[in-house]
Amino acid sequence: MMTLSSSNATVPGGNASMPVTAEVKTILDLLAAMEGPPLEDLTPDEMRANYAALGMAATKADVASVEDRMVPGPAGDIPVRVYVPEGASAAEAGPVLVYFHGGGWVIGDLETHDPTVRALAARSGITVVSVDYRLAPEHPFPAPLADCVAAVEWVVASASELSIDPARLAVGGDSAGGNLAAVVSARLRDTPAAPCFQLLVYPVTDGTLSHPSIDENADGYFLTKEMMVWFWQHYVGSGSRTDPSVSPLHAPASALEGVCPALVITAEFDPLRDEGEAYAEHLSAAGVPVTSTRYDGVIHGFFQMGDMIPEGNQAIDEAAEALKRALA
User: Residue 264 and residue 61: Cα distance in Å, rounded?
Assistant: First the structure.
């Protein structure tokens, strides 16, 4: 069963119903006025530096504690950051969200997503473990996925130390992180580390780049089609883009039956809009309970832009409430 909701009553598959919001237009105008080469012409290191600069001034919510840890991974230690919200009790095992940052598997880290993860922890009252998985092209598929699987398994194995209940574990992420969360949910379905909820924020689900929104929103809305081509080339190279481990939309129904419930959040003016909503429908067809919410008038990345885009705060609130309900 799939529940559809929207910030302005747009249903998945519909045409754009309104222009971008005034706040989004201001951001897009500023980006358009900036001089420099197209982002897809930058090197990974240059792109990482630009991305890191975007969120430096973002508001950081207060939490009870933040601790950087190193956890064992398939090719060495994986950095993680553990956020414990106010009111959490070390004597009582609580729920946990393992979060995978976005950035096309190439950019992003613990710092770029620190404000977002803090907000999720503070508003949900749930401990969050943010994962700094290896990045392409230095570490292409399957390295980022392997790190994410290992991090979830570590959280479960360390439940007592972390004061969390492994039976109330969720995974989540935005963009490429949403892709990783979706694949991890399916990969761990039949294991002791199986999540009980997945939060997928404008997830990448289909490497074929064939959905209408890829071309409808190809340019001028922050994330572009050419940037997605650039990200995919770095992540999988000449490998298969329809392998379900990189494109969960291509997973057979049998691989998704029994996977944990999901909240899928999409943005109207996002090249990834249609593939995210198609994945919500794919999960629902496999019998997975899904809520799919499209936020109208906004762009890819709005979930991280709550200081500038009100819908970003609304989406964080929706995610926090969904996590509280799912992990109660």
Answer: 24
